[in-house]
Write a structure and sequence with these properties.
Blueprint lengths: L1 E10 L2 E11 L3 E6 L6 H8 L7 E6 L2 E2 L4 H5 L2 E4 L11 H11 L4 H14 L15 H13 L5 E5 L7 H16 L3 E5 L3 H7 L2 E6 L2 E6 L1 H6 L7 H8 L4
Parallel strand pairs: 3-8, 3-9, 6-7, 7-8
Antiparallel strand pairs: 1-2, 1-4, 4-5, 9-10
Helix pairs in contact: 3-5
Length: 240
């Protein structure tokens, strides 16, 4: 579970996130929506400890990300909004580096690398340098690294970006399976169709403030029964 309590973040006098309260429960796929500049990535970077929190607290499975950062970071996996990391490493070198960070035993590491990279169709490219990969291949490599140590909490910032249909389907199935085991899956996306198909609950943020939190049925009940998610989203975000 991720608990965000009265969190505020400012940049040069401009409030990016304002007094945000949000609980992401276990056992559900939780979608995080909002227009560009709404505060989604800023919120995710505070959850993961990349950005400091100006006011408020964030805990991941009970660990405060500010006071207990190492304990918190050991139990979550984070897919950033850009896969352009460690470009001078080969794919296999990057994955082994991640395995070293989390002290994964060699046999478990090799089994997980084989499974994940074959699932995402990048196994044959592991001896190539990441800088030669396409955007989609880099995304698959990052996702494989994130899932390598089997974290309880998944924090995914636009994880489907650049994925081919087969890999997108594979990741969505993995997300469903992970949540079904009672774990946390928290992801941001701009693809509204994915939200309707995949999410158990959703939160919508705009101008740094929470506009809605609930399931799809509850969101549509606030509007006309025949309205689709796109219309609901536009109304909640003031048509931005």
């Amino acid at each position: 579970m991720i608990s965000i309590n009265h969190v505020t973040k400012e940049f040069a006098g401009k409030t990016a996130v304002k007094n945000l309260d949000l609980v992401i429960p276990d056992g559900k796929i939780f979608g995080f929506l909002g227009p560009n500049g709404a505060g989604k990535s800023t919120t995710i970077k505070m959850i993961t400890g990349i950005l400091p929190i100006d006011n408020g607290t964030i805990t991941v499975n009970g660990f405060d990300i500010t006071r207990e950062p190492m304990k918190a970071k050991k139990i979550f996996g984070y897919v950033p909004d850009s896969p352009d990391v460690f470009l001078r490493l080969k794919g296999i070198e990057y994955l082994n580096f991640i395995g070293d960070v989390y002290d994964l035993p060699r046999d478990i590491r090799e089994e997980k690398i084989d499974y994940l990279t074959k699932s995402f169709g990048i196994y044959e490219a592991l001896d190539d340098y990441i800088q030669t990969y396409s955007h989609g291949m880099r995304q698959k490599t990052v996702i494989s690294g994130v899932l390598l140590h089997d974290p309880d909490v998944w924090i995914l910032d636009e994880p489907l970006s650049g994925l081919d249909p087969k890999s997108s389907y594979t990741l969505k199935e993995m997300m469903r399976e992970h949540a079904a085991k009672g774990n946390t899956v928290f992801f941001s996306t701009h693809v509204l169709e994915v939200v309707e198909q995949l999410c158990d609950e959703v939160a919508i943020i705009n101008s740094g403030q929470l506009q809605f939190r609930g399931n799809m049925k509850e969101m549509k009940e606030q509007f006309e029964a025949d309205e689709n998610l796109e219309r609901v989203f536009l109304e909640l975000t003031n048509n931005e």
